[in-house]
Amino acid sequence: MEKKFENLPEHIAIIMDGNGRWAKQRGLKRTEGHKVGAEVFRNICQYCSDIGIKYVTFYAFSTENWKRSKMEVTAIMNLLRKYLDEMQERYLENEEAGYHIRFIGSREGMPKDIVKLMDSVEEKSDDKKKTYINIAVNYGGRDEIVHSVKALAKKVKEGTLNPDDITEDMISDGLYTAGQPDPDLIIRPSGEYRLSNYLLWQSAYSEIYIDDVLWPDYTPADLDRAIEEYGRRNRRFGGV
Ligand code: FPP
Description:
The protein is α/β, with parallel strands linked by helices. The chain contains 7 helices and 6 strands. Farnesyl diphosphate (FPP) binds near residues 16, 41 and 76. Farnesyl diphosphate binds near residues 16, 17, 21 and 76.
């Protein structure tokens, strides 16, 4: 594909928001919105890979989403299971076009069969390097920071780390996204102006783009608009 953008973000993070409202507007059940949302997720993964985005992180299920009705949680887990089965199949048949897949978030409390599938898909995609796809499941930004800090606290307790020697990099290295660049651009469709506990540490200097489009209506053209706007931003990282 010919080069479409002058300034392409290396890492885009997306909050897939608005599935419930999309369904409600059509008199459908919320779960129908998630179903279409999961298809859009597949399309946007493919598009990001086509245009050469190296890292894409999707927010699929937060640590707070367990508060939703049992029916809705089950429906989202079923969509995830379906996707994992599909990916498993694709890797076995060697049809996958280079997705390196990582699940970020806590495995604790997740259905056991899903955890097994996640591990297997991660393992099968390990040698693929074209596009790094992170899927945040049972993910919370604060939870992730606590997780990283606890590991450092253990080292302090064991006497292998001096508290005065703790650096930002050490905290970054204990996050689920260890080794990956921070997101350059965070996109939130559906018009809400908040981060909702997403990538709190990693978003320190991210550009944020809010779109009115609801996630099930999101298209590659919407992503193009966000990338174009990103290209016009003047990132200063605290400098002048
Ligand atoms: C937010 O919209 C969306 C979610 C909490 C779930 C997102 C999950 C998917 C798109 C399916 C995941 C599947 C795969 C394969 C990754 P909302 O329900 O908060 O919408 P609302 O704000 O309009 O109510």
